[in-house]
Amino acid sequence: xxxxxxxxxxxxxxxxxxxxxxxxxxxxxxxxxxxxxxLAYLASAWRExxxxxxxxxxxxxxxxxxxxxxxxxxxVNTGRTYGKSTIQYRSLALVTGDGLLAAxxxxxxxxxxxxxxxFHHRTLDRIVAHVVAAGERVIDEWSHNAAGLxxxxxxxxxxxxxxxxxxxxxxHALFGTxxxxxxxxLAAATLAALDVVVARxxxxxxxxxxxxxxxxxxxxxxxxxxxxxxxAMVTERRRGPSGGESADMIDLLLAARTADGRALTRRQxxxxxxxFVVAGHETVATALAGAWALLAGDPERQxxxxxxxxxxxxxxxxxMADVVRLPYARAVMDEALRLYPPAWLLTRAxxxxxxxxxxxxxxxxxxxxxxxxxxxxxDRWDRPDAFEPERFLPGAAQTVxxxxxxxxxxxxxxxxxxxxxxxxxxxxLAQLAGxxxxxxxxxxxxxxxxPLVTMRPVGGxxxxxxxxxx
Length: 470
Ligand code: HEM
Prior knowledge:
Layout: E1 11-12, E2 15-16, H1 25-36, H2 38-49, E3 52-55, E4 62-65, H3 68-76, E5 82-83, H4 87-96, H5 105-115, H6 121-146, E6 154-157, H7 158-175, H8 181-202, H9 214-238, H10 249-255, H11 266-280, H12 282-296, H13 299-312, H14 327-339, E7 346-350, E8 354-356, E9 359-361, E10 366-369, H15 371-374, H16 418-433, E11 436-439, E12 449-451, E13 455-457, E14 462-467
Parallel strand pairs: 4-10
Antiparallel strand pairs: 1-2, 3-4, 5-7, 6-14, 7-10, 8-9, 11-14, 12-13
The chain binds protoporphyrin IX containing FE.
Protoporphyrin IX containing FE binds at residues 100-101, 108, 112, 170, 275-276, 279-280, 283-284, 287, 342-343, 346, 407-409, 413, 415-417, 420-421.
């Protein structure tokens, strides 16, 4: 897709336009459209104006960037030419504080080395048991629902089941095997606070966080609850970690030290924990729900996934060693992440004037990038809208251009939980595919995706689930 030219002499109050974009009455439509249905609006702006679009927002000058090379350049240069101090991450920080995801470069640089050990491969080894247990619980529940229904199966919300399973896995990884009431309180408070942040983003004018509006009061209450749950948990751990081989992520965060002996402060530990709940729960669940929704419409590919599961697992619980033996499950997960990237929006601020795809962008501009659009770019993907997991298989006829596949971002700020997500996603897909079959009930179809903090299926994913004999 080519980039159009900026109209001569076009200005937004005090800011020269440097890229094509909506003007005149289209400006108002743009502002309304972006709030009402951001995904549809971004897609239409891209189709109409090209790979770099300037929106009619003077402060900060705001650009949609969907040129694959330019997106790559922005992500890999974050920390130097680009920062994360944007409206998106500042809203998230109302819940996660300066946790890794929302932190701008200086705070991030200090904390990342301290957080990294919590994602050591020993942690990943330990999550496998929790993944298997969560998968078994899903199968038991569905077997119970479908008991006696035979081939008709039961219609269930697969998305809700994936949300519960993913929360269970990240909860156990963080807090160990004995999930205390504080852990439940903490997860519930984080999610409640996140809901308020999403609701705030939906209204045209949001009062600053200090104004006692109903939304802000709810946010403050949820954040207070989150703070007190984390405090209770951290105080408990300081009395004595769960320790040794069974150390969970909180123990690892509390034990981490920089080369000069500094530890994370209590506030920083709280921010990381809230970040893990936010970043590690809905994302994985959405990817899995998307995979099942796609498989339900494609019985042949579902059969291929089940056949791989039968051959490799033969009905036994999966282990860490199986992750690399399940290439088709991995390809299904990748294709679901391509078509429904949970992190559908990435933003950056320019720290200096730059040129992106031939467009001059001033310092202090907001860059909006969407893996959802990028993953459908016709210059980089054949049949971009088709569900074809085979494109991700080793030895596929046409190799995937990894620079145009960014479900986990790229560069130094790439997702720290990427391996965690693949271990969980691939093993759960294979484990469930060996035991269940999904299809759409009459009139059912692929749900519409709604872009919230992550991209969520509207109304869940209601599928007919038939349990294969165990
Ligand atoms: C399918 C699942 C997941 C997806 C699609 C996903 C996506 C992403 C993306 C796109 C970023 C980069 C954001 C940016 O560049 O602005 C990111 C960062 C991050 N993710 Fe994930 N994520 C997933 C799972 C997880 C899990 C399981 C965890 C933790 C338990 C996690 C924790 C984080 C953290 C802490 C960061 C910030 C990393 C940094 O800046 O150093 N994510 N994730």
